[in-house]
Amino acid sequence: xxxxxxxxDSHCHLLSIVKKGGDIAQVWAEFLxxxxxxxxxxxxxxxxxxxxxxxxxxxxxxxxxxxxxxSETADLPNWDRLVSRFQNPLCVAVGEIGLDWYRGxxxxxxQLQNFITQLEIAEQVGRPVILHxxxxxxxxxxxxxxxxxxQGVFHCFSGTPEDAQEALNLGFALSFAGNLTYKSSETxxxxxxxxxxxxxxxxxxxxxxxxxxxxxxxxxxxxxxHTINFASEILKIDPAxxxxxxxxxxxxxxxxxxxxxx
Length: 262
Hints:
This protein is of the alpha/beta class and 262 residues long. The chain is 41% helix and 16% strand.
C-alpha cells in the first residue's frame, strides 16, 4: 500500500505507543507514507484527554474519542467534564466503553453503571460509541437494545458469527484487529465472512495486537495494512478496494463530526 491508497486505522492508543517507547512523529510519518487517511485515537480514561488533544496537532487526519474503559473502575469519573469534551469538533465518539468479564465479575456493578451512563451520554451528545466487549456479549447486546438510538462499532470484534449477526441486526459496524491473522482465530475469520462490506472496519488497537507478520513487535497504525491484506484474501477482494471501502465506512459512521472538524 502507498499514498494512492486510502488507509484508515479506526482504533489506536497514541499515548500508550509513546509510553512504550514509540517516536510519535515517526509513527505518524509512517502512517501517512502507507496512505493514511484517518486515524482515531481512542480514550480509555477521563483524565488524559488534554494530552490526547495536544496530539491532534500531528495532522488533519487525526481524530479522537473520549470514554471510560470498563477496566477503569477505581475512581468515579467526572461525567460533566467528560460531556464537555464533546464540544471539541475533533472528538468524534464516546469510547471505548463496554463490559469486560475476562478476569472475573468483581467490578460488574460499577462496570455496568459506567456503561449505561456512557450510553446515555452518547444519546445526549449525538456521538456513536466504540464498544469494548470481552466475554460479556449477551449483557452488552441487552443494554444496546435498551438504547436503540445509540449506534457505533464493536471494536476488536472477537465473537462468533452468531454474535456478529446480532450486532449487525442492531445496526452496528464491526471492527477487526490484528488477532484476525492469528492461527487460533478461525471462528473470528468465519464471523468476518458474514459481515457486509459496508459494515466492516479495521484497526490496530496499537500498541497492542500486532498482526502477522509483525506479531511480537510494538504495534503501530501503519500495520493496519497487514490485517486488511489478510482479510482481503479471506473475502476475495482486492486489498486497495477493501481499504477504500473501509475508509468510506469510517467516514459514514463519523460523518457529521468529521466534517465539523475539517
